[in-house]
Specification:
This protein is of the alpha/beta class. It is built from 8 helices and 7 strands; from the N terminus they run αβαββαββααβαβαα.
Length: 254
Amino acid sequence: MAPKRKQTKLTEVKPNSSGKLARNAQDILKIQENDIIYLVLGQTGAGKSTFLNHALGREAASVGHSLDAHTSTIDPFLLTTTESGRIFLVDTPGFNDTWDSDRAIVKRILDWLQTSCHPNTKFGGIIYLYEISQSRDNPTTNFMHPTKLSEPQAPQYVILATVKWNLVRPPVAELRESQLREFWAQMAARGSQMVRFDNSAESAHRILDMFPKTALPVERMQREFRRILGLLPDGSGIKEGFVSKLFGKIARVF
């Protein structure tokens, strides 16, 4: 599991007068050998910045309020410092983006992993945010086929967190969650977990604590991203997106 928050001493980059972190403060955060990173992924508008702000306990990531992609860069946010190293949450551009293809975004994430992380940096996991409030399937990104993760241990480091429960009636949301579990069964059988995020710091920390105690070498996940990048189309014709290639279909058939 991830280190308990109460067992660590929080070390932060100081916010500016508006309560937000200055961009140059994020730029100087070089990921080092003993650091652990967690990637926060999701489609555009899923609420990645909201999750980050709850986890961090401050308004660090800018929140968008439209369907257009709000985050366009890869931004690491320092969560805490332990005796063995620092823990970072990494904000990423949304998939199924208005302007960039999934391939371009995966390439950007891979480039960041290769250039900003030490070869011995630890990979804590992927938090993939899924909107339970969405009711329509996206045929361009969600084709049914087996999961594409080839690293045997990789699914243990993926948590599917459903979000925006407040935007849909409980009986409808619970039905969607039940159906989603059926589509996530293959990942779950290989060690992945599915959980609700309830828009609180406690919920965000609880999700982080669900990951395996031992992190993976970041180079192993770099290989996964590199392989998946090769499977993604070049942008011409009907595209099958990153979500489909990485996880298999996450259907919206409600």
